[in-house]
Design goal:
Elements: H1 17-21, H2 35-46, E1 57-63, H3 67-73, H4 81-84, E2 89-96, E3 98-99, E4 104-105, H5 109-126, E5 130-134, H6 139-145, E6 152-161, H7 173-178, H8 186-189
Antiparallel strand pairs: 1-2, 2-6, 3-4, 5-6
Length: 193
């Protein structure tokens, strides 16, 4: 069974195929992602809902084989570096922690960045591009490396690429790549009152 087939869940209720197809691989192929596709992903992110329509997100990105990609890769924790090196593109999602127009902190910026990332990933899935969100990075190093201001927070890195073969991965990543996806049941995450 391919790593794609084993990752498609059998849902209890009808769910859009594009949502069922989305998963977070670690094996990426050598195929590059062109700028038109990147622009499409970023535009999809831009249309995410946000509190007060503040759109408190920004993305910076680099293609594999460039010094900027290496700079991003160097900010990741060692547990992510072995497989992320094969991604076609690395992005850094940055959130704005302050609503300048209202002169107040933006307590919803992480949620809003998550919505933008969800849009980006849904669009990526529709283009047969796969992504993996990364919270395992050195925050202080990232802030310094990319000159983030006091109102900017590195939310996550995003590894993007076309799907590769699980056999290209070292352990423990290979086994994880071939394991079925699971989720908590609805009774664990929702309650009717």
């Amino acid at each position: 069974m391919s790593n794609t087939a084993i990752k498609i869940p059998q849902t209890e209720n009808p769910v859009l195929d594009v949502l069922k197809m989305r998963w977070s691989p670690r094996a990426f192929s050598e195929k590059a992602i062109d700028e038109k596709a990147i622009a499409t992903l970023l535009e999809a992110a831009s249309w995410a809902p946000s509190s007060m329509n503040a759109q408190p997100w920004r993305y910076i990105y680099a293609h594999k084989g460039t010094p900027a990609f290496e700079k991003m890769w160097d900010c990741l924790l060692p547990g992510n570096q072995p497989w992320v090196k094969n991604a076609a593109v690395l992005m850094l999602n940055i959130g704005y922690t302050f609503l300048d127009q209202f002169l107040v902190p933006n307590r919803h910026f992480m949620h809003d960045c998550g919505m933008a990332n969800a849009n980006l990933f849904t669009q990526a899935t529709a283009l047969d591009i796969y992504g993996h969100l990364l919270g395992g990075f050195d925050e202080a190093k990232t802030k310094l490396a990319f000159g983030l201001g006091e109102k900017e927070e590195p939310v996550c890195f995003v590894a993007l690429g076309y799907l590769g073969e699980a056999e290209s991965l070292e352990e423990p990543f290979r086994t994880r790549e071939l394991a079925p996806r699971t989720r908590k049941g609805l009774s664990e995450i929702a309650q009717r009152l």
